[in-house]
Amino acid sequence: MISLAGRDILHSWGRFLLTGLGLGLLIGVTLTMAGVYRGMVDDARALLGNSGADLWVVQQDTQGPYAEASSLRDDAVRSILGLPGVARAANVTYLTMQVRHQGRDHGRDVRAMVVGFEPGQPGEPGYLLAGRHITRSHFEAVVDVRTGFVLGDRILIRRHDYTVVGLTQRMVSSGGDPMVFVSLKDAQEAQFLKDNDAILNERARTAANPGLNRPGAPGLLEAIQASQASNHNVNAVLVQVQPGVSAEAVAEQIRRWKHLEAFTRPQMEEILVAKLIATSARQIAMFLVILAVVSAAIVAFIIYTMTLGKIREIAVLKLIGTRNRTIAGMILQQALGLGLIGFIIGKVAATFWAPVFPKYVLLESADAVRGLVAVMLICALASILAIRAALKVDPAAAIGG
Amino acid sequence: MKLNALLSRRVGLGLLGLLLLLVLGFVVMRSGPLAPVRVTVHKVSEGRLVPALFGIGTVEARRSYLIGPTTAGRVRQVAVDVGDVVKAGQLLAEMDPVDLDERLAALEASMARAGSAEAAVQAQRRDALAKRELAILNARRYADLGQKSFISAGVVEGKVQEQTSAEAAVSAADANLSAARQDLQRLAAERAGLRQQRDRLRLLAPSDGVVIARDAEAGSTVVAGQAVIRLIEPASLWVKVRFDQGRSAGLAQGLRAEIVLRSNPSKPLAGKVARVEAVSDSVTEERIAQVAFDSLPAGLALGELAEVTLALAPTAPALLLPNASIKRFADAQGERVGVWLLDDARLRFAPVRLGATSLDGQVQVLDGLRAGDLAVVYSEKALASGSRIKVVDRLVAGKP
Fold first, then answer.
1. Which of A38, A136, A265 has the most B C-beta neighbours within 10 Å, making it the best mutation to test the interface with B?
2. Which of A31, A34, A27, A32 has the alpha carbon at shortest distance from A295?
3. Residue A273 CB neighbour total at 10 angstroms
4. Does the beta-carbon distance from A52 to B328 stay under 8 Å?
């Protein structure tokens, strides 16, 4: 038995393939949009996963350090380390800023999140692509490859040059900015250090205050100015709890006795996903829904018009006594084939162009399977319309005209 | 002919379909959860590493002097300016003496007067001596006459009494004279004290040096101890370096140091640790050491930022690993530090104990590994024991 659908495709294979290609690109766009949405959520999760923490301790009554500004003293970590159930705790600072490239491509700014961490403690990048971890206590940086920096590059953060010694990957802020890891002391200084003009102004302002610059009290002004130019604040303390200890129990102690806010990982995820990126994620999700509906409509129309274009040949088939089932099968097979080709092309195209996107695009396999089922369903539904039209055609149309 | 064309089209389409499926298969295997994690491996081998300490510090003077008055007062003149090279004993500034000079003049006058008084007393004494001389002669003569009974005993006794009075007058004159001398001594001592006070108002350089600050000008009032001039000994410049406590093991006096000044980063200078402070900074968690230059560079500025690297002795041979391969992984026994090893294309987590590290990222493995083990160094994402991996040479283009 010869396949009617196959013979028809062979007859006009060029048109069939081009239609499949167009359909595929459309499906590719839809899959990519789903990937953009997943990428946003995944960026937020990556931020939590990379920090390696079970608990985030931040300033009281804030939802820091990612969603809100938070500032606490850098010796709070010592009292937290003394709590029962705490395995490791480390200070960390986060500061989103422009990092300037020195040398090779001088003056290029990269928006990055500068992370100050203590080596060997939570907050350190967990894996590297190249180079090494930081070994000096100052002026070395490990960067995400998305910054575009390479090993040995000199980058400018505030007034100090840092050498890129290591590269890592998928270390991003919740907004998708790549991270630059530097030592905690450098980051504390970078976070606080003003430009020289501001420092000079501040000194002059302090010196002009008669209460702080009293005659007869030598050294007082210098001491005040020195204390103004140092920073012992951090944004958060990352805490790992001992195995078998409930993070919530430790968090409760910190809230009650240390007068700081503490978030467990589910709470932090809630803050990041449900609060921080909620609006933009919903925006993308809305767009995704519209795109999916439009794609479905276009697929249905393509299959319908393709059948209508063959209406004369179908009339001939009916005229020579072909059974309705055979004609319906032909249309359905063609529609599903078109959907399959479209899906494959779409999936391939999405995979190839996803890495070009400036922000992370996460193509989930589950999304792909869902997409395949949806494409097949839409194709089948669309072919029902086409089959109805084909079956209603009058065989006389073949000779009538 | 027709059949042939149909056949070739069919074969062509079939090939096309096959190609599409192949591409899909490739795509599915290369991305998403089925894709292997690309890693690079490193063969664990034995070697020595040269541990080093790294710190930053500022250029400071070992000896600096704050020169100011010992009592509150007004500055009369400042003789030197910032940057001047001064010799030991040179006048730097002078305080206003107020009435000290007048008091000195008054003392001088008092001393002159005391000198006159002494002269008067001396004259009185000479007078008393002359009177005593006469009284002695008279008394002796009257005593002779009395013995020969030419005169009455009453007259003799009167002359003896005269002699005694004359002797008492001499004693009184002697006492007056020493009182006058003591008065003169007191005034001289007072004058010396006042001169010293006057000299103390002249601020002199305690040693050769360079003026780094001129904190008060003529006419301004300063309190006791407040500096008017700041002086340093330029030959005593060194770098006060702060080392992270956690990475300061091995810090000791005498270690060779490489100093990189911020003003000239391409030219490292040689030096050595001159002093390690016994007290470390508990707030910043840093240890403090002073590193002296072997030879002072020209134009060195106080307060300049410097990076200092101290080289320690090479370690004994031990297994070495790049620090990028050290991971933390939580399993049933809690989170441990270790290395992912490649055993017949399967991943195994081996906990290790680490030793010294070097600044170029090598770390000693004390136990947990054998020479020849294949350790994962770089990976595209965090690994787990079930991860599918693919070993490649490098993960990013360019040098690894």
1. A136
2. A27
3. 17
4. yes
A216 in reach of chain B (CB within 8 A): yes
Q: Point out the residue among B55, B246, B400 whose CB comes nearest to the CB of A130.
A: B400
- ipTM for the whole predicted complex goes beyond 0.85: no
Q: How many CB atoms lie within 10 A of CB B6?
A: 13
Q: How many CA atoms lie within 13 A of B389 on its CB side?
A: 29
Tell me which chain A residue has its CA closest to the CA of residue B243: A137
pLDDT digits (tens, 9 = 90+) for A148-174: 898 988 998 888 889 999 999 888 888
A4, amino acid identity: L
Q: How far apart are CA B276 and CA B310, in angstroms?
A: 13
Which residue, among A137, A142, A221, would best test binding to B if mutated, counting the most B CBs under 10 Å from its CB? A137
Nearest-angstrom CA–CA distance, B59 and B241: 9
| Contact criterion met (CB below 8 Å) for A177 and A164 | no
Kindly indicate the confidence band of residue B400, based on its pLDDT and cuts at 50, 70 and 90.
very low
Check if A311 contacts B (Cβ < 8 Å): no
Q: Give contacts of B20 with chain A, Cβ < 8 Å.
A: 341, 344-345, 348
Label residue B2 by pLDDT band (50, 70, 90): low
CA–CA separation, B88 vs A124, rounded Å? 55
**DSSP calls for A11-24:** HTHHHHHHHHHHHH
Sequential DSSP letters for B2-66: HHHHHHHHHHHHHHHHHHHHHHHHHHHHHSSTTSPEEEEEEE-EEE----EEEEEEEEEESSEEE
Binned at pLDDT 50, 70 and 90, residue A3 comes out as low
CA nearest B228 in A: which residue? A218
Confidence of residue B11 (pLDDT cuts 50, 70, 90): confident
On whether any CB of chain B is under 8 Å from the CB of A196, the answer is no
Residue B50, Ramachandran bin (φ over 0: left; ψ between -120 and 50: alpha; else beta): beta
Peptide bond into B268 cis (omega under 30): no
